[in-house]
Design brief:
The chain is mostly beta strands. Helix content is about 10%, strand content about 45%. The strands form 2 sheets. A 3-stranded mixed sheet has the order 2-5-4. The protein has a two-stranded antiparallel sheet with strand order 1-3. The termini are close together.
Length: about 70
């Protein structure tokens, strides 16, 4: 499954390492403001998404984890 995220936060977003560890394929570089990022999940899964805000100093982080139907 393909999941596309658009960063409209006005801030940079780091991708949590567990995104890759859980089996989601994507460019792991920081998502810039107004940038779109595609996440490829294993077949027969859907995305479970969590975002953390560590404040201005440490920024935002996103986790995209595949879940079975």
């Amino acid at each position: 499954m393909k999941f596309v995220y658009f960063n409209d936060t006005g801030r940079e977003i780091g991708i949590h390492p567990a995104t890759k560890e859980h089996g989601t394929k994507c460019d792991m570089s920081t998502i810039q403001s107004l940038e779109e990022r595609t996440f490829i999940l294993p077949e027969n899964t859907y995305p479970w998404v969590k975002m953390w805000d560590y404040g201005e100093e440490h920024g935002l982080s996103i986790l995209v984890s595949p879940q079975k139907h």
